[in-house]
Amino acid sequence: MTSFRLRNVPLLSRVGADRADTLRTDIDAAIAGWADAQLLRVDRRNQVLIADGRVVLHRATDLADTPPEDAVFLGRLDDGRHVWAVRSELQPPDDPDADTHVLDLRRTGDVFDDVSAQLVATATALLNWHDSARFSPVDGAPTTVVKAGWGRVNSVTGHEEFPRIDPAVICLVHDGHDRAVLARQTMWPPRLFSILAGFVEAGESFESCVVREIAEEIGLTVTDVEYLGSQPWPFPRSLMVGFHARADPEQPFAFNDGEIAEAEWFTRTEIREALDQGDWSSQSTSRLLLPGSISIAREIIESWAALD
């Protein structure tokens, strides 16, 4: 069987800052750092500003003298300064000559450094959770923010809730040689293909989910499921867990759950040629357009395609 590893750390899995989790419970210390802290603004579309290859950070005290209730603590930079995030309209950097543009994280992530990747992924996931967790899922009581944005407490019962993560598997299916399956979801335009993914169900392991999802989506029975790596996907709060698995190309496709419009076995040469054309955002006329660099799907496909 073809066995391989990811060649690179997925872009949103990069680590560049100290999460400083002890400060989430040492609130006095976290607040004390606000005077010199940096602030990341994320707008309602989960976009941020990028300038000269880094996410734009502002002086926290320009927003308020102390952390607002809806601010979330992200960690510490190498120089010891704290970083917080808020949901806010974007503001230009202090340097008017900086090369600045708005970034939608779902489209690209290779334009900024490791620190920026970690800060943006964490901020987006936390802020998305807070947007949907203002009331208890148990009794509907209002909840309040605790632990510098890393928890919410039921105002009636005192029960504490923590940021929710929805695990999902994503898998490249291959024949053990030089062919792999790519599929197009029903909502995607023609020529846009990727590998297969689905959410993990209650009482299910990642590996079992791979087998079930592949069978449900395209009707193939897969074996030899192997883990590759993972990546946060904060839209709104997922964790993508990557695998590859083997299937027999003689099996017919069956689109059982209605999510997949078409699937096809592609050769390694065909996939390499498609990778050379760029990604979904390119103007290529290639018959096959593949995911962008921000997705772990791209890293999995590139790693498989690079095999001899």
TrEMBL record:
Protein name as catalogued: NAD(+) diphosphatase
Gene this protein is translated from: nudC
GO cellular component: cytosol
Organism of origin: Mycolicibacterium obuense
EC number in record: 3.6.1.22
Keyword Magnesium: yes
PROSITE patterns: NUDIX, NUDIX_BOX
SUPFAM superfamilies found in the cross-reference section: Nudix
Family: Belongs to the Nudix hydrolase family. NudC subfamily.
